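Here's what a typical entry looks like (Nucleoside diphosphate kinase):
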Amino acid sequence: MALERTFSIIKPDATRRNLTGKINAMLEDAGLRIVAQKRAQLTKAQAEGFYAVHKERPFFNDLVAFMTSGPVVLQVLEGENAVLKNREIMGATNPADAAEGTIRKSFAESIEANSVHGSDSPENAAIEIAYFFSGIEIVG
Ligand code: RTP
Ligand code: MG
């Protein structure tokens, strides 16, 4: 199968607890390659734009406040079946439902402060990567 790319965010609850390296090790151990990575402090406008699909959801304002509450690490991950593979490593949105050994089971604090984001389809991955990265920043 051809290589695929997905977009990942290490969220503020995880950067605050200095978990970037541990999360990156789990991604790499699962066979994903980090082909772009940068730390950022999201603005309110950036977070609102990124999560625009959720703007009618009751948790939208809280989510934007959380995602701007501290630094994040923006990443492009590459590998076979990268979108699905990353979703498997992440685990369920709510850590109470996440499988043993997943990032969210290991580290998430709550359904909101759940340590990582990962694209949910190849189409959204392409949109999300382009939202934060230029082509020259991605080195596969
Ligand atoms: P993500 O987009 O961050 O990878 O997570 P996901 O697909 O597993 O979850 P999604 O339904 O897309 O929700 C996006 C993020 O919103 C926060 N959330 N809070 N308070 C709540 O009930 C609630 N539900 C979702 C989480 O941070 C979730 O990852
Ligand atoms: Mg999602």
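The mean pLDDT is 98.

More examples are in the samples folder.
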